[in-house]
């Protein structure tokens, strides 16, 4: 039974979904829209993750919305502050009233005769829309990636995953082992170490880390000298230039950045031999996402002796902890499996056209936000080398331009064509969580508009001016 029809349906009430709604209603006050949120609260990622120390790994001047400046003094903010910022943005924009909570989208089918989507929810109800915009990110909310550890059932302590953090877990005075070396692990270790008996970060191989100050002194100075919006824009520009320059240098001169990151780690830990053993990856910087540690907090905990790093493979779990491939046993009361995420395209929604399932992994990514051959459907993903919101907001603005073009010319359907060939994957990282999902995500083509660049400085000038008709087939609205 169909409950209602809207001009646009947005999937997800997180950072992307609220930003999309703001841009949509700003451009089209008369259009009807609804946000379908599977959970019972606004915030997406920042409401889901509740592990100790959860925070942004991008600065808030670029992670926040350009239309609503970040005014807190923290540059790397806590998850709760980010969640509240998203909530306040939705309330201020009158967006909250458009959100339908507990509305998990499980399937969406496009009808060519009707030129509309029928969206089916987990509770069996359906809704229809002219345009569908998936803003639910690219990882599964059902649970993170959990390897099948041999002997896990024998462990006498507690084994938890950060994505499903138990509210009753008390780590005070406990021996904790955090498995992993990515952003979640390097956040958890310094957050738990002050209260735990000891925290060990167990990694198969090292990751690159960089320290950033938790408070941006330049942004603070700009706030004292400029009006809020101008100060935020200036801080945003400064941080974009710094991060993009660093990324491009890392890709072009990896050895130089390797040396720089090593020197930073040696200064933070005070032990060159320790750094070379545990913080010297075999891959180049930015082959995987670079982990940020605010104020060098992880290094400070290692230096204090409250935390340590072990680089080895797991042989199996034993009752008292983890036996390593080298034979040593790490004794633990709590093991945190910070082993990554499970990625899903389009928020895990089953997409079909006229009843025929769409095999997303066989599609090409049109401008990184639509699928070849699939009408009136957009999806939002961020950059892998910069703040998510930078690219997300460009995607929102592009969708607005496409809808405006369709309204102006009385067009009902926009369908991306098909490129001559496909090349690199959509998410071009060597990280395990990305590699495990390559086959289910669309791929890039060999030339524009089928290339997804990781270059905000270029995209910010080209995307707002991109030709929305290029490689796109339109159909007129029926009278």
Automatic annotation (TrEMBL):
Keyword tags: FAD, Flavoprotein, Monooxygenase, Oxidoreductase
InterPro entries: FAD-binding_MO, FAD/NAD-bd_sf, Flavin_mOase-like
Gene3D superfamilies: FAD/NAD(P)-binding domain
Co-factor(s): FAD
Entry similarity comment: Belongs to the FAD-binding monooxygenase family.
UniProt-recorded name of the protein: NAD(P)/FAD-dependent oxidoreductase
Provenance organism: Paractinoplanes ovalisporus
């Amino acid at each position: 039974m169909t409950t209602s029809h809207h001009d646009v349906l947005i999937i997800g009430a997180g950072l992307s979904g609220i930003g999309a709604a703001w841009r949509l209603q700003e451009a089209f006050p008369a259009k009807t829209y609804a946000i379908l949120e599977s959970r019972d609260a606004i915030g997406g990622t920042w409401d889901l993750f509740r592990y100790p120390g959860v925070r942004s790994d991008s600065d808030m001047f670029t992670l926040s919305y350009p239309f609503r400046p970040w005014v807190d003094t923290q540059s790397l903010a806590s998850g709760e502050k980010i969640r509240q910022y998203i909530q306040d943005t939705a309330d201020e924009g009158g967006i909250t009233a458009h959100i339908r909570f507990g509305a998990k989208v499980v399937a969406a089918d496009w009808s060519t005769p009707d030129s509309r989507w029928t969206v089916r929810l987990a509770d069996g109800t359906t809704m229809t829309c002219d345009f569908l915009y998936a803003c639910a990110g690219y990882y599964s909310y059902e649970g993170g990636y959990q390897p099948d550890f041999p002997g896990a059932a024998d462990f006498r302590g507690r084994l938890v995953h950060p994505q499903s953090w138990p509210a009753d877990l008390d780590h005070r005075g406990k021996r904790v082992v955090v498995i992993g070396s990515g952003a979640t692990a390097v956040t958890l270790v310094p957050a738990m170490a002050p209260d735990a008996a000891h925290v060990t970060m167990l990694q198969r191989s090292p990751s690159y880390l960089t320290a950033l100050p938790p408070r941006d002194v330049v942004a603070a100075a700009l706030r004292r000298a400029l009006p809020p919006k101008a100060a935020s824009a200036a801080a945003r520009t400064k941080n974009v230039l710094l991060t993009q320059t660093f990324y491009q240098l890392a890709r072009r001169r990896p050895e130089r950045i390797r040396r720089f990151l090593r020197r930073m780690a040696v200064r933070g830990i005070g032990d060159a031999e320790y750094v070379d053993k545990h913080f010297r990856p075999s891959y180049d910087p930015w082959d995987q996402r670079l982990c940020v540690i605010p104020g060098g907090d992880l290094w400070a905990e290692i230096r204090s002796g409250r935390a340590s790093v072990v680089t080895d493979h797991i042989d199996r779990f034993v009752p008292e902890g983890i036996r390593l491939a080298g034979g040593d046993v790490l004794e633990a009361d709590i093991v945190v499996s910070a082993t990554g995420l499970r990625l899903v395209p389009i928020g895990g929604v089953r997409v079909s056209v006229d009843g025929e399932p769409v095999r997303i992994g066989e599609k090409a990514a049109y401008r990184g936000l639509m699928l070849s051959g699939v009408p009136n459907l957009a999806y939002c993903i961020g950059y892998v080398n910069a703040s998510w919101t930078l690219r997300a907001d460009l995607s929102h603005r592009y969708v607005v331009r496409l809808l405006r073009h369709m309204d102006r010319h009385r067009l009902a359907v926009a369908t991306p064509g098909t490129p001559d060939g496909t090349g690199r994957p959509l998410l071009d990282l060597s990280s395990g969580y990305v590699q495990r999902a390559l086959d289910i995500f669309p791929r890039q083509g060999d030339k524009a508009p089928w290339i997804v660049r990781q270059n905000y400085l270029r995209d910010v000038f080209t995307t707002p001016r991109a030709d929305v008709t290029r490689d796109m087939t339109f159909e007129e609205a029926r009278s």
